[in-house]
Amino acid sequence: LSLIQINIIHNCKCEEVSPSLYRLVTCNITEEGCAALASALRSNPSSHLRELNLNDNEPGDSGVKQFSALLDDPNCKLQKLQ
């Protein structure tokens, strides 16, 4: 996942703590944003991202299901989602 791929989120302070950890806290990420993020991660299996912090966003049921399915995918390297 690159910072360019995250540009779908407007007015968001994306903090890249390390290549394996991003914080997208309080970015008003909705179900649509979660679907886009999950899709970006799914289409980039070589991503080094292991942890993603989405605290204080509004993923809705659909966004939670998207990330749940992503975490269940054996090709996904994401290990921790907050």
TrEMBL record:
Keywords: Leucine-rich repeat, Repeat. The keyword Repeat applies. PANTHER family: NACHT, LRR AND CARD DOMAINS-CONTAINING. This is Uncharacterized protein. The keyword rRNA processing does not apply. Signal peptide: none annotated. It holds the Pfam family LRR_6. It comes from Electrophorus electricus (Electric eel). InterPro entries: Leu-rich_rpt, LRR_dom_sf, NLR.
